[in-house]
Amino acid sequence: MDDLERRERLCAWFAAGHRDLPWRRTRDPWAVWVSEIMLQQTRAASVVPYYHRFLARFPTPAALAAAPIDDLLALWAGLGYYARARNLHRAAGEVVARHGGRVPDDPEAFGALTGVGPYTAGAVLSIAFGRPAPVLDGNVERVLTRWAREGGDPKRPPLRDALWARARSLADGPTPGTLNQALMELGATICTPRTPSCLLCPVVEGCAARAAGDPEAYPRKVARAERPVERYVALLAGPPDGVWLVRRPDTGLLAGLWELPMVEAGPALEATAAAAGFTVDPAGERRGVTHAFTHRIWQVDVVRATGEPSSEHFPTARLVPHDGLADAALTGPALKALHAWAVAGAPQRRGAGRAR
Ligand code: SF4
Fold this sequence. Notes:
- By secondary structure, the chain is α+β, with helices and mostly antiparallel strands.
- It has two domains: 3-217, Endonuclease III, domain 1; 229-340, Nucleoside Triphosphate Pyrophosphohydrolase.
- It has helices at residues 3-17, 29-39, 44-57, 61-66, 69-76, 83-99, 107-111, 118-129, 138-148, 159-171, 176-189, 208-212, 269-275, 332-340, and strands at residues 229-236, 242-247, 258-259, 262-264, 278-279, 286-292, 297-304, 306-307, 318-321.
- A hairpin with a 4-residue loop joins strand 6 (286-292) and strand 7.
- Helix 2 packs across helix 3 (44-57) and helix 9 (138-148) crosses helix 11.
């Protein structure tokens, strides 16, 4: 099966009945861009309510650029991977400053915006502007490696470069936006990591892995380095209708988000907590939560405490009423900690994962 036939079959299959997702009904480059950023590392079903709220509040790059970052972080709370939000905020400012508020359709200009990598550039340029730009995300990677039974590491050269070249040649046709969305949709719904539904696949005849009976062997699983585990104790304190939160520093991990006051775990918890302004019962109940970041894992024991955060340890501390928790830009671990103790007013946690 040649590329022309693959393209035609994929586009026809996509046109015949793709999932009806709100960003599929628009070619507004700002809306497409926002959806693509939100969909990174997050499931489509989780993104839908955020997408609507975001565009209602920030319908243009100029609206976002004019808003304080804290407004955006609060709206993003629960979606995770906050660097995406910060980069989008910065990029909106660049669109206003450099392009008069209009999302540029020039690949070089668009690719130069903060947070726009090759994937985002390909998706927005092809879907919103009809440019023949390729996309390669985890879903497309899976489809392409299966077609040709490519056994290398798809995250590194030479296979990574070969896959980009393959995606580029596929997108080089009459409807690149539809083709790219069809490829991603195929990976998300049919060519799934486990038990792909090959009988429903529009390009089954051209698939080497299907012919060999081993699609699940692709892409090759590559062992990544083990992540270090860091242990903390989070202190849940406050009056009956509120909780003390502290703001993380403006740079680094979870920058600018709010969390429970935390101290490092260790044998001298009572003394460590006291130095931070709190009293804890060392024999009191601990409820553990685990949070996996890309490069580390946090294991956090959440304990009840009394007292108030010392201004020296926690200069950014703020007493937040339970009914204000939904508007606070909370870290993922803080959200889990609040749920571990069933704190009233804690916002819902959103499912996150690689599937679009
Ligand atoms: S035939 Fe199966 S393995 Fe091959 S692309 Fe289609 S769904 Fe994926």
